[in-house]
Amino acid sequence: MEYCGYAGNILRVDLGSGRISREPLDSDLASRFIGGPGVGLNLLLDLLEPNADPLSPENPLVFGTGPLMGTLVPGSAKGYLSTKYTMPAGADKNKCFVSSSMFGGRRFGSMMKNAGYDHIVITGRAEIPSYLKVTDEDVEICDASDLWGRDIYETSDILRRRYPGKTGVCGVWAIGKAGENLVRPSLGFADDLHNAGRFAGAVAGAKNFKAIVTLGAKGVRIADRKRFMELYTRKRNQILEYPYEPWTFETAVCNKDCTGGMCAVKVIHEAKEGRFKGQRFGGSYIGEMLEWDDLSDWSERFKLMDVMNRQGLCMCTARRMIWFLTKLYERGVISIKDTGGVELKRGDFDGYMALIEKMLNKEDIGAAMAEGWQALCERVGVDASTDAEAGCSIIKGIDIILDARFWLSHFSPAVGLAQIVHAKAKQVHSDTSWIRGPNPDLRKDCEEMGMLKQEIDRVLTDDSFNTGRLTVYTEDAETVYNALGQCASAAMLQGDPMRDVPWLAEVYSSVTGFDITPRELLRSGERIRNLERLLNVREGFTREDDKIPALYIQNTETPVKVKDIAFYAPDGNDRYLMDWYGKRLMKDDLEQMLDDYYEERGWDPGNGVPTREKLVQLGLENFIETN
Amino acid sequence: MEKVNISIDSDNCTECMCCQLICSLTYTDSFNPERAAIVINTPDEIRFTEECKDGCTLCARYCLTGAITLMREV
């Protein structure tokens, strides 16, 4: 079958046997699951044995893109990585979530498609450190002995010099020392600036797998060029008229973008003064930069963050672990003996850097940090998930990046409930793209998700909305973006013009030649979301694991002091857990949201598993036995 | 290849590749950055290849960041 939009091929690489094969993309799979993680999770489903060790050769890494990737559509730059991730949800180290990470990029995804592939499935373990070269001329597993031990930027630079393109660089995804040393809170980066696969770096490391290079000139064809350009031009003009300003900072040297992007949120910073004057740091990490507020010297912040990015260490989890240990140290709960000789105090760069090094090398207390929250809490004898002063909100073994207690929009479908019910406890952008606090346009927002009138009527009330029910549709809408290869955060940054599933349905048709209605597109998002749930049910996850974080519940009774959340509390008030309208939430309110969510999803409210009826409705009958 | 009617400032380039995408779509009938007639290797290099069509200003018209701009006629 000749595809438009899609490259039309899946590449399979077994690092153990060295076998490389190519197969056509199944058109039924593409039409029902669109692409991106929709197809990726299906590929994973066939290969992943339930309860497998995520660090075993049997855990596949599936990379890929969606049908809009590599086109001019603003924000059509999202690749994905599907795998079983490395962070244990509890004492069983093999009970880890299965999901997909979305990541932007300059060349990695578009060059993958131009090399002729929508998806790359990597299995097995290489005997020696290896990387994968994927071009339109050939695919080769290459010796990475000279790259192993190098950081991500060095590795990517070497590979870009080794495989120069005719009009620009090749695409590169790579891991650093954290992934190589099997540090669980590790990740890879695509094209230097785009964090790709939080908690998956060690999956690659366990395969002796360092990097992927992509380069090609096959081209991404579109079915109806005239219609596409009309749709593109209309949206481009809407975006240009929208009042959006790129992020600017005093420390910014320049802004970078993703392919086809129009928001340029990847900012390269340079410290103008301080201990590490001249230190550069790049990425879209505003919150993370601000949250190191105990380091008044910004060059120290940049240094720490640059080291973590270079080595592919998750800066969010590492920072929270460092703070956790520092506060326990100051409290006298742990001592210099526990930290392996590191003296810790708040605002002391040297102590922080020493812990990062220990984590990367898995030495002393760093060995426990490298194993995740469960291991670290056991080591120090304190439960971080319940310690309001030193700990953080944790769901399914994962610290929450945007804590719903603090975030400006309070407890919302965007930041609160979706974290609790999602496989990987929602990370950054997620559904924030859609609903932005109380606003008079909620009905319009819902229509732009492709929701039907009866669904909107069920979600919206006269003066408010049902958080549990609305979350279902915001999740599905976001999943549509992911499946298309479209950036959900661009929808947030570029504002109203990019919150437009009906427009995306038209664009999808013009690119692929497959007609689809907005509601069918949203249904595909729902199908993918259910498939992801089923994969996690196989791993033993149920409603029991969709736990409301203990700190959220504490915060229903005890306010967070504004001094601890100054950045998030511009009103200067101590903060109870609240909904968007400023009403205090209690535990029962949260449980009710969960009940509403499962009911709207068509999942059993008792165990959180998709019901037979829902699976039949979605055409997922073949998964009923899995259930 | 120099183009008399287009000005380049690579400091403004965000590497969104819109120039390569519109160029390749127009002249190769597919989105194919490697077959575009403009090379983007920032921070140092933005240049046109020998295949670049005389008088074509598409890249400048689709550049959103001021990296490639149409020069005003004197």
Give a short synopsis of this structure.
With 627 residues, chain A is an alpha+beta fold.
Question: How would you sum up this structure, described in words?
Answer:
The complex is a heterodimer of chains A (about 625) and B (about 70). Chain A has 23 helices and 17 strands. In chain A, the strands form four sheets. Chain A has a six-stranded mixed β-sheet with strand order 2-1-6-3-4-5, with helices on both faces. By secondary structure, chain B is α+β, with helices and mostly antiparallel strands. Chain B has two helices and four strands; from the N terminus they run βαββαβ. The longest helix of chain B is centred in the first third of the chain and has 11 residues. At the A-B interface, α3 and β13 of A face α1 and β2 of B.
Features:
heterodimer; A: 627 residues; alpha+beta; six-stranded mixed sheet; 14% strand; B: 74 residues; two-stranded antiparallel sheet; 4 strands; 19% strand; globular
Number of H- or I-type helical stretches of chain B: 2
* Total DSSP E strands of chain B: 4
Estimate the helix proportion of chain A, in percent: 25-40%
* Biggest β-sheet strands, sense, barrel of chain A: 6 strands, mixed
Class of secondary structure makeup of chain B? alpha+beta
User: Count of DSSP E strands of chain A?
Assistant: 17
As laid out across the biggest beta sheet of chain B, the strand order is: 1-4
Q: Beta-strand level of the residues of chain A, as a percent range?
A: 5-15%
Query: What is the succession of H and E elements of chain B?
Result: EHEEHE
Global shape of chain A = globular
Strand order of the biggest β-sheet of chain A: 2-1-6-3-4-5
Distance between the termini of chain A: 33 Å
Helix content of chain B: 10-25%
Radius of gyration of chain A: 23 Å
Q: Count the DSSP helices of chain A.
A: 23
| Rg of chain B (CA only) | 11 Å
